[in-house]
Amino acid sequence: VSRxxxxxxxxxxxxxxxxxxxxxxxxxxxxxxxxxxLAARPYELGLACLAHYASxxxxxxxxxxxxxxxxxxxxxxxxxxxxxxxxxxxxxxxxPVDAPYSYEGDLLSFYxxxxxxxxxxxxxxxxxxxxxxxx
Amino acid sequence: VRLRIxxxxxxxxxxxxxxxxxxxxxxxPARATRAWLELVERVGRRTKAGRVESETVIADGPLAAETVxxxxxxxxxxxxxxxxxxxxxxxxxxxxxxxRPRRPDLVERVTLVVATP
Lengths: 135, 117
Description:
The structure holds 2 protein chains of 2 kinds. Chain A is mainly beta. Chain A contains 1 helix and 9 strands. The longest helix of chain A is centred in the N-terminal third of the chain and has 6 residues, at 35-40. The relative contact order of chain A is 0.34. Chain B is mainly beta. Chain B has strands spanning 2-7, 11-12, 17-26, 32-43, 46-60, 68-74, 83-84, 89-99, 106-111, 113-114. In chain B, strands 4, 5, 7, 8 and 9 form a 5-stranded antiparallel β-sheet that branches. A 3-stranded antiparallel β-sheet of chain B has the order 1-3-6, with no helix packed on it. In chain B, strands 2-10 form a two-stranded parallel ribbon. In chain B, a hairpin with a 2-residue loop joins strand 4 and strand 5. In chain B, 26% of the residues are buried. The interface between A and B is medium-sized, with 18 and 18 residues.
């Protein structure tokens, strides 16, 4: 299970291993960056599970769906964030045993990855490494 | 047609055989009776089949009252375990469907409990 996400900017390096693991296991993340760029914005690094699911919304328009339509929603189902202040950092991040596993369906999907983001940018990471989490 | 499903075990694991008896309580016309295992995606009241596995015909033709039909369907070795989250859930159903002439299919479901390996 993977999605298209941005590669890290040239001043940042993100290494993650392993890329496939089971719930309860940990990934090792090695992060390096240029300090001047890192200091410019409040970056944070995290292991996150993004849920993508189908919802239903109402509309005043009466069309093929009789005033209802499908609205897809994205939300973080699990996230553990660490503020990035140092130019080099190595972390072990564990997938909880009761967290969702990777799954890509029609009504419901779960995407795991290691993110680097600025909190204010929400679900738009600056760097992303996809993971596959098996049950 | 009225059916009862007796299933040997609902608590199962990936790779297990899902076996049981389909008991015909009231018979009637039918073209075929099929059984399969279905991974169900559930979000709110909406459901959709995420996977369909081990589909098999367990009876051809009309169903006579008091008939007992034995079924055994393998749950795949890579079957996802049950998952329940804030936004939705995944679970496996045993589905039995009777294809009836000039009437909608009669569909019965039993939700399995699939353990994490």
